Amino acid sequence: MSKVVDAIKNSNYLYVVKIDLEGFITYVSPHFQKRFEYLNKSLVGVFSMDTIYAEDHPKCAETVQLCLSQPEKPFPVILRKPYSTNSFLWTQWEFTLLLDANHEPHEILCIGHDITHVEELNEQTVSINAMLLENQTKYSNIFELSPVGIAVNSMDGQYLEVNTALLQMTGYSKEELLSLSYWDLTPVSFEEQEQEQIRNLHNSGSYGPYEKEYIHKNGHTIPILLHGRLVIDKHGKPRIWSIIQDISKVKEREQIIIDQNSKLKDIAYTQSHVIRHPVANILGAVDLLENEVIPPSIQLLVEMLKISAQQLDDIIRQTVLKSRALETNEEEISRLHTRDSA
Questions:
Q1: Sequential DSSP letters for 41-77
Q2: Mind listing the pLDDT tens digit for each residue in 114-170?
Q3: Cα(205)–Cα(280) distance, rounded to whole angstroms?
Q4: What is the b/e burial string over 284-313, where b = at least 16 CB atoms within 10 angstroms of the residue's CB?
């Protein structure tokens, strides 16, 4: 047994300290003296509370009282040791009240070890958990408060997470939508286009933006703009994150522009034909007059009339060309709306 006691006293891992009933240190192991000699060159004779962080004094005194109430039974306690102005070392102990030969309280045996690295890891874990909770709260707020639809789908299309905007867009409750896949909301006419976007997702990790339609719960279709990315979740499973925007109002504005352009084209074509007919007659009459012998004063008027008629004919031609350009503008407007929405 003496060898075991010697091994503990000479341990480079365990601290061994003895304290009398008045709280003064009567013995320290070499490892404890070496580790905490910055507190005092000789720790024997030092009041034990002077080696303990002030805020832990009540906890230490409470443990001593437990020892006095139940001799020879060990009681655990974690105590901080002052290390520098704003830091400390963490130590874990077992206090045991030893009795003398007459079974009277004699001294308190304290056996402990350093747990600073453990406590630092615990503090880091708490800090990381707090950051994760904060980020999760931010993510949840962004997800729920987003004015556009957001969905997380499995690779087979099953809805896993949806936000309020998407529920309002499609007319489904959350429970209803989570029981469906995006194939259930996609008209058959978009199946080939949908397959192409899935191939893009596999090849590049993202898809879109592209336009298609969703089937509302009530049966009507909604024009939408989608784009998304492939994301690996915390369980290592691939998930599709999508942003879904209802572009009904964009399509309505496009249609208004297209209708207005159509009317302008009709007006331009009609007016150009109506006006060009008399202009052609004027130019024909001018050509006839040029072949006649007429006074110089009249010849000047004929030339002025010819120039004005040609200018008017050029204006009409430009009007026709601009009306034809409206067709190209309609396609460009649609493309720009898609880009801006994305």
A1: S--TTSBGGGGS-GGGHHHHHHHHHHHHHSTT--EEE
A2: 988 877 777 777 677 677 666 666 666 777 778 889 999 999 999 999 999 999 999
A3: 62
A4: eebeebeeeeeeeeeeeebeeebeebeebb
